[in-house]
Specification:
The protein is of the alpha/beta class. It has a single domain, classed as Vaccinia Virus protein VP39 (Rossmann fold), CATH 3.40.50. The chain has 8 helices and 7 strands. β4 (about 150-155), α7 and β5 (about 175-185) form a beta-alpha-beta unit. The longest helix has 18 residues, at about 35-50. It is globular and about 45 Å long.
Length: about 220
Amino acid sequence: MYNRQRDVHNFINNLTGASSAEIQGYLSEIAENKDFNNNLEENQTNYGRRRFSGWGWGIGTTLGTVLYTLCRKVRPDIVVETGVASGVSSSYILCGLEKNKKGVLYSIDLTWREGQSGWIIPENLRDRWQLIMGRSSDKLPPLLDRLKTIDVFLHDSEHTYRNMLFEYQTVWTHLQPGGLLLSHNIDASDAFSDFYERIKLIGYTLGNLGGLLKAQMK
């Protein structure tokens, strides 16, 4: 199972070089953050259950804490994600950035209902969040052209082979050396494995979350 402590530690270590002690420290840090966890629970109860019947935790708590830990270790200036939905992954990323006291998250989302995207995100974390509405095929290239370089990317939008490969290829040239490419639902197609084999890198997996580390310049 992907939520075993050893598998979580190995995944994070392979992508960042963090020691087990560092990793455990970050995991404990987010688990013990009562304000953050209470805010998620309150938003779920007071907003989500009332307005949306299928709010869902696409990423979930375990993978959310992994995203938090990666952001705490890497200390990114710019994170980009595609796919927001309720905003669980966004919340964990933003919590890591806030703890670092640096960084901005740019999220691209296509939703069928006004106000749905990111409804679970705690209010105190939204200052570091920029939401862009539209298809990633339309919005991702101009965003990356404007940002020039990014430090972390998370794919969690449409999980077709074509779209996943498009996002990986589009992001890769803008990803800083030492940056991370992450992808949720890698089991939806062969796009993730095809991409890392094409660029001759090792792809790391944790359940249905995949990760690539862009090599540092020598």
